[in-house]
Design brief:
Layout (H helix, E strand, L loop, with lengths): L5 E6 L7 H10 L2 E6 L4 H13 L4 E5 L11 H11 L5 E8 L6 H18 L3 E6 L2 H10 L5 E3 L6 H9 L3 E4 L7 H9 L5 E3 L6 E2 L2 E2 L5 H12 L3 H16 L4
Parallel strand pairs: 1-2, 2-3, 3-4, 4-5, 5-6, 6-7, 7-8
Antiparallel strand pairs: 9-10
Helix pairs in contact: 3-4, 8-9
The structure holds zinc ion.
The site of zinc ion (ZN) has 5 residues, from loops.
Length: 248
């Protein structure tokens, strides 16, 4: 029995060895849907298989994560996405990461091409940024991308106002338990612009996450905002449904 209806807006389900048990636990915890994000061709293919086997529960996003970008592989990754974009609810995980060794220029080119695909196909984007928030935001805004979520936002607070002012969302993770920049962002953003997620199977303080842990995210967001969890659950699920055009 569960009164809550939650969506985990960002999970790497293809990395789970205990997938079916994790999905059962998530259902029991009140998770009504999961957006599964992809990293590269292989992971995107796996995402489609998982979504196919769990229709109406797992919603596929396909992407090309900056960590996976390799010179010589970009063409194949981009054309896989172009060919399959109509079958997904979003393009993700995509973005810019300045802490890794992949050249910035290559990252900008790939991210720009992915934003163009999102625009042409009218799909939202799920954006990963590290030390690159301003550039990623401006690339999306310049292209007039309408729907975007800046995942696990821990960037500058001034920029956050511009992000939500443009109509984009940010998402909250269980890192709210300990991360001051993430807490500050969630405190500042209006609840109408926040999604809940886990980034499963990321470890938080030494514990691997699963989609059911979106309950932890819910609890932390509720406490930070001083709102009842039922209010936060309802609003953030509506937000996710609007962003990803999901209908239950
Ligand atoms: Zn992720």
């Amino acid at each position: 029995m569960n009164e809550l209806s939650l969506i985990d807006g960002h999970a790497h389900l293809e990395e789970l060895k205990d997938l079916s048990g994790s999905l059962d636990e998530a259902r029991t915890a009140g998770v009504r849907g999961i957006v599964a994000v992809g990293m590269d061709i292989e992971s995107n293919k796996n995402i489609f298989q998982i979504a196919q086997a769990n229709q109406g529960y797992v919603y596929p996003a396909i992407g090309y994560h900056p960590w996976q970008i390799r010179e010589g592989e970009t063409k194949a990754n981009l054309s896989f996405i172009r060919d399959h974009v109509q079958r997904c609810v979003a393009l993700g995980e995509i973005g810019l990461d300045y802490k890794i060794k992949v050249k910035k220029e290559l990252q900008w080119n790939v991210f720009g091409d992915l934003l163009d695909i999102a625009l042409e196909s009218d799909k939202p984007v799920i954006v990963h940024c590290r030390f690159s928030h301003r550039r990623a935001f401006e690339m999306a805004r310049e292209r007039k991308i309408k729907r975007a979520v800046f995942h696990w936002y821990s960037g500058p607070l001034g920029l956050l106002d511009e992000i939500v002012g443009t109509g984009y969302f940010i998402s909250a993770t269980p890192a709210l338990a300990y991360s001051p920049p993430h807490q500050a962002a969630i405190k500042q953003a209006p609840i109408e612009k926040i999604l809940l997620e886990t980034d499963t199977p990321v470890s938080y303080q030494g514990r691997e996450s699963r989609p059911k842990d979106v309950r932890i995210t819910l609890e932390k967001v509720s406490r930070l905002k001083g709102l009842d969890p039922s209010v936060v659950s309802k609003q953030t699920t509506e937000n996710a449904c609007r962003l990803f055009k999901i209908r239950f």
